[in-house]
Amino acid sequence: EQVANGGAPVSAGFSAPKASFILALVDDFVSGKISAEMVANASDREAAKLLMGLKGIGDWCAGGVLMHFLNRADIMLYGDITIRNYLNDLYDINHQDSSETLLESAADFGDTAVNRNLIDAVAKKYNWQPYRSVVSYLMYHLQEENLVLL
Length: 150
Description:
Elements: H1 7-11, H2 16-31, H3 36-41, H4 44-52, H5 59-69, H6 81-91, H7 99-103, H8 112-125, H9 132-145
């Protein structure tokens, strides 16, 4: 009852909007609009579409679910600041970082489409497909050590 009235997510430290997203997600699963099986059995593209059809889920979150929780091997989180900055450092991809970009969802940047094309060009040149998730994991770890990805 507390969850149904919105009390549990808010009392757990979530803001009211996040609590409403959580409750909408619960409703979507309970109503059968989506299920773990539907997402798990769908192609990467279809699973992302299913997830992004839910309130509060965008492309970064959908990609993260596919990569981190469903262990999909060929996911590139184009809007992820860490990946974009690391690729920029390595391959001089045209990404200008600012305090504004650090505060907003990377999917909302005006340069996301341009960077997607540049990232895809690098991925194609270095034959990352169909293992772009693995490359992404390497970027997260190598960035901390300031190592070069060849």
